[in-house]
Amino acid sequence: MGRFSGKSGCCWTEQLESASYAPLHEVIEVETVIVGAGIVGLTSALKLLEAGRQVVVVEALEVGKQVTGRSSAKITTQHRLIYNELIENLGLERAREYAVANLAGVEAIKSWIAEHEIACELEAKTAYAYTLNRSVRAHLEQEAAAAQKFGITADVVEWAPLPFRTAGALRFPNQAQFNPARYLDGLARAVKALGGRIYENSRVRQIENEGCWCVVTDSGKVQARNIVVATNIPIKSPVGMANRTQPRSHAAMTFRIEDPPPIKDMFISVEEPSHSLRIGRDRTGYFLLALGPRFSTGQDGDVAAIFAELEDWVRRNLPVGDGLWHWCNEDYDTADRIPYAGQPDHENASGFYIATGFNGWGISNGTAVGMMIADCIAGRPNSWLSLYDPLRPFPNDFHESGKSQSTVSRVDQIGRGEGGVLCVGDHDIAVRRDLNGTLHTLSAACTHKGCPVTWNNADHTWDCPCHGSIFAADGSVIHGPARAPLPKVDVDL
Fold this sequence. Notes:
- It comes from Candidatus Filomicrobium marinum.
- InterPro entries: FAD-dep_OxRdtase (IPR006076), FAD/NAD-bd_sf (IPR036188), Rieske_2Fe-2S (IPR017941), Rieske_2Fe-2S_sf (IPR036922), Rieske_Fe-S_prot_C (IPR005805).
- The chain is of the alpha+beta class.
- The chain has a domain at 407-479: Rieske [2Fe-2S] iron-sulphur domain (Rieske Iron-sulfur Protein).
- It is 21% helix and 30% strand.
- It has helices spanning 39-50, 83-90, 92-115, 137-148, 180-193, 303-317, 362-378; strands at residues 7-8, 27-35, 55-58, 74-75, 123-130, 155-157, 169-177, 197-199, 204-209, 213-217, 221-229, 245-256, 266-269, 276-281, 286-296, 323-334, 340-342, 352-356, 407-408, 418-424, 427-433, 439-443, 454-456, 461-463, 470-472, 477-479.
- The strands form four sheets. Strands 1, 4, 5, 6, 7, 12, 13, 14, 15 and 16 form a ten-stranded mixed β-sheet that branches. Strands 2, 3, 8, 9, 10, 11, 17 and 18 form an eight-stranded mixed β-sheet that branches.
- The longest helix is centred in the N-terminal third of the chain and has 24 residues, at 92-115.
- The protein is globular, with a radius of gyration of 22 Å.
- It starts with 6 loop residues before the first strand and ends in a 14-residue tail after the last strand.
């Protein structure tokens, strides 16, 4: 197992002093219920409230502390190299729609921050996609030309302003970065100020059609004409999204850096393994935020080694001090690099909206999608419906499920602070040994579709290698599509 530094947790969420909202303990009737208080859910809520509509938001955990709040939070239309690829694969007009939607998402974020006076450390930055290989420069030139077709200011420079050698970079000026957890907290406050209702720690257990959409939590119920399932991957959908998407995670770490910082802007590498860089600030001073390459959720048996490799790369290339925080974040990829959003089945499930598959670029796309869904509910036209169409064709072999990477044959193979999956009779058992040596046992079958989970030895979670559900060490749900925890089991080991 690789060794790496820092505390477990996200730099944004661990220090968030946010408003709190009570759990749902009643039966409510409302026009629209939104499941999930991330960037899609809160954007949809705010836009609907601005249009005079009624909204309830139900969040399984806490506002601002899930996928959006744990992101690198680059407010940018530079999504590595994408526009030339979209032109080649989907045509000029589809690529234009993608650019226009994301430009609108970026501008909406900036506008709401100003209008609602959200203190989220918004800073103007230049975004660079850099290469270490001179032969890739032609691809950078093609991408700049493609972006320029859609009114995006872009050019190619000889090198990126980094403290290590590069062979060129695609430059997008006039981009931005922020603190995503504080932004979501600000959006939630704006939603409440406009009359929206938010409920935290209210995990949705059932979604039924009873003449209207009925959302059931452990202690309450919401009945609504419209439902927006904005839960990273839908916990329920009229049309399955699991085979249209691929769950993936990446490692994120922060390090203390001196003032002045060694970098000023936002960076991402073109080549694999990818590395993404930006700076931030906390009460003590500046820190560097570094993201490593993606890996399929639950399909790597030594995630700690990924963190160790990331830290080694950072320390070889940048002047950093102590490691501060480390965490995994998850997203879902799509075959064509465009999210799925809208109504999957308008005829048989009218008023049911979903959003998923943001390919790591959910800040601008998620905002655009939230605006689009709000327009649909409010009866306003929106030109992005076909762009994000959740029923568009996809390759049948795109999704690849995996197997547990934590299988052990004996319980003594599981060290203190570690976990493994042990076959006992006909059942797979998730076994964790705590730091005191005590064993804890759960069913290893993911409560979504039954796939045996993998122990994440960096985040200390149980991760599903099929559809990306993530469970805490005690079996409680962190990310869906699972809605129920891994049950405890009594077994003689």
